[in-house]
Amino acid sequence: MKLFLLVGHIGLTISSLTEFTNIQCKTLDKSVAEFEYCYIKAVNRTYKYISLKVKMNQLPITTTKVNIALLKRYNGYKPFLYNYTVDGCRYLENPDQNPIAKYFGDLYLPFTNINHSCPFNHDIILEKLNIQFLNNHLTKVLPFPEGDYCLSMIWSLNNARVLIIKTYVALSKIAN
Ligand SMILES: *[C@@H]1O[C@H](CO)[C@@H](O)[C@H](O)[C@H]1NC(C)=O
Ligand SMILES: *[C@@H]1O[C@H](CO)[C@@H](O)[C@H](O)[C@H]1NC(C)=O
Ligand SMILES: *[C@@H]1O[C@H](CO)[C@@H](O)[C@H](O)[C@H]1NC(C)=O
């Protein structure tokens, strides 16, 4: 986000910068699915990305629910703005119906192999979700205040709680 501020008579441009600080992926129910890998890779200072793969142990997947919660660090991570459960299969049929789910869906889906209607008959891959994209999306599409955030996603597949993904990002503003 470029925000034009007038400080006295001096123009000052504020840009936002997002950094991945951590990712945690936890399998809760191996009988349905499990993480094969999940990592942040820093290619260089500006090119960082997240990749993950979920191996399915039960197919097909016919129902999905995703609990999406945003947390912000104050004195420990506290709930911030959203805590919301989406019916994944219904969402994929009609993403425009639900603006909040669409916002988070637009963050992840372009980098996955799950942007299609249910059922799922294959493993799930998130390939190289890069920080520039996230930066753009988080700061230009919906401006958030500076701080440390955690996006928590709890995935239920075929009615079992199966996966938790926590993505940690730091958001800062730079004046230039
Ligand atoms: C960082 O790596 C990407 C991908 O390899 C490359 O396109 C980009 O030019 C690199 N940037 C710097 C500053 O080296
Ligand atoms: C969001 O709300 C649900 C249901 O109240 C709760 O189980 C979950 O722990 C909350 N998520 C976070 C990250 O606080
Ligand atoms: C998902 O796929 C549909 C149909 O191909 C496409 O119109 C939409 O832009 C895709 N959504 C995302 C978030 O990639």
From TrEMBL:
Keyword annotations of the record: Signal
Signal peptide: 1-15
Listed InterPro entries: DUF1091 (IPR010512)
Name assigned to this protein: MD-2-related lipid-recognition domain-containing protein
